[in-house]
What we know:
With about 270 residues, the protein is an all-alpha fold. It is about 65% helix and about 0% strand. The chain is globular.
Amino acid sequence: MKRVILVLLVIFLMAIPACITGGIPINADNFEDGFVAVDRGDYKTAYKLWLPYAEQGDDEAQFNLGLISHQGLGVPQDFKDAIKWYRLSAEQGNSSAQNNLGEMYNRGQGVPQDYTEGVKWQRLSAEQGDNKAQLNLGLDYAKGQGVPQNYEEAIRLFRLSAEQGNIGAKTNLGWMHDYGYGVPQDRKEAIRLYRHSAELGNIYAQYNLGIIYDNGEGVPQDYTLAHMWWTLSGSQGLEDAVENRRLLEKEMTDSQIQKANELARNWKPTKKK
């Protein structure tokens, strides 16, 4: 069984300061009301409250409208509307909008799929230090998607992202060390990175650790720990982990399975520092 490399798009509602940007006469109280609406799950009202700000050119409001339409939060999912607002925000230099716009081009959501255009926007975001864009651009280089494949550049970008605490980037760094892509193969370092991300709850790092313990690669073979990590990964929705656990149980004793289930029940993620 092969380890998996993480594909991740992280999008979120930004904690936008209630202030006037670009000289636009905006009522900050009304702007904050949008966040009050979000807190109670009323994204439709938040969209209406932020629309005037977005129409006046506020890049943060534009980003938030793009996100609401992109994810279909309280409104019908509308990729074309998301593209419209992300682009307006991205053209003003909003790094989160640039990252998400790039990912929509990569996925062909609301626009024809265009990896080159996706890389363009994610590079602009990554150059501003956005750790999610650094992760996504690193994946583009690792896959040769929209750019010539370049594992060394992928490693560089994953490291920049990981240094900012992005656990997806740490998982990918583990994968690169595991297989020796862009760096000398170093299973010990791969396991260290996987474990750190897995302890924080990363679904893919947990899956990969399960494979390592199942095969006894760099660690003593331990079906109980493999089962535990696959249980944790599978509980977050990774179907391959559920299937691997099912197959593994055929090789385990009842007491081993019981112990693994107990470990999984008692496991708690490490708090991110």
